[in-house]
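Re: folding output
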Amino acid sequence: MSKKIPMTAQGYAQIEEELRHLRSNARPEVIKAIAEAREHGDLSENAEYHAARDRQSFIEGRVAELEDQMARAEVIDVSKLSGNTVKFGATVTLADEDTDEETTYQIVGEIEADVKGGRIAVTSPIARAIIGKSVGDSVEVETPKGQKFFEIVDVDYK
C-alpha cells in the first residue's frame, strides 16, 4: 500500500495548479514544437526535435509524479486546528536562546517545503524537535552548525 503524503490545502492547490498548467499549456506547446521540428527533415541530426522530445519526456514524468502525489495526498485543513501544542500545519515562532533572534516557520509536507518562504518540512530536524511541544518549551535541535537551543514563543494555526 502506498504511503500517504501529508500536505496543507495550499500545498494541494499548488500541485493542482502545476498539473493544470502542464496539461493545458506545456503539453500542447511541446507537441507543436515536435511537429515543427519534424518538418525540418532528417530527425537523426535535428537538435530541435531531440530537445523537444526531451522536454516532452520531462513533462510526462512530472505529470505522472504530480498525479501520484495528488492520489496519495492527505490534505490537512490547518484552519480547523487550534491550541498551544505544535502539530502539522502550525505556524511556530522560535527564539534562538543564544541570540534572542526570532524566526517563524509553518510546518508543512515535504513536497511543499520552502525554507526561504518560512515553510519547513514535517520531517526536518527543527520540525521533529518541536512537534508535540508547547509555548514556553525549550528544544534542542541538531543543525549542520552544531547544537542550537530554541524557545517556542508562539504557536498559531492560520
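--- second protein (sequence, then structure) ---
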Amino acid sequence: MAKGLDDDLQVVRELANVLADSGLTEIELERGGLKLRVVKDPAPVMIEASAPSYQQPQMAPAAAPAQAAAAAPAAEAAPAAPSGEAVRSPMVGTAYLSPSPDADPFVSVGTQVEAGQTLMIVEAMKTMNEIKAPRAGKVAAILARNAEPVEYDEPLLTLEG
C-alpha cells in the first residue's frame, strides 16, 4: 500500500512540474480508478466561495450610483436602463477603469467604442482580465467604480446604439 502511495505522489510531483514548466494552471489525469487533479492556483469556485467578504463592501458602491443619478437624474439613469445593454463582469474581482493609476480611463460616458475594444480591467487572483466591448456602441453609463470589488455577472457599464 505504501508503494502505491509513493507512486501516486510521484505522479502528482510530475504533474506539478508540468504545470510549472508549461504555464498551465490546472491538469487533470484519470488512470484506471484513480483520478488526479493538480491546480496551481485556487479554482474559480474558491473565489466565489469567498464572495460573502465582497458582498458587504459592494453594497456601498451600488448605492453611490443611485445617489449620483439622483443628483443628475436626466443625465444617465433614465435613458441607460431601457435602451442600454449591460456589459457584465465575467468574474469576481476588482474593477480598474484605467490601465494604471496615473493613466486616463479606457472609456468615459459618451465614448464611441468598437467591438473588442477594452472597456476596463477586472483583476482576479493577481491576473488582469481585459473586459472588451461585445459590440460597437456608445458608453451610456459606467456603473463600476475604480479599484472597487465587483461580483460575478454584475453590470459594469451600459452600451447603447
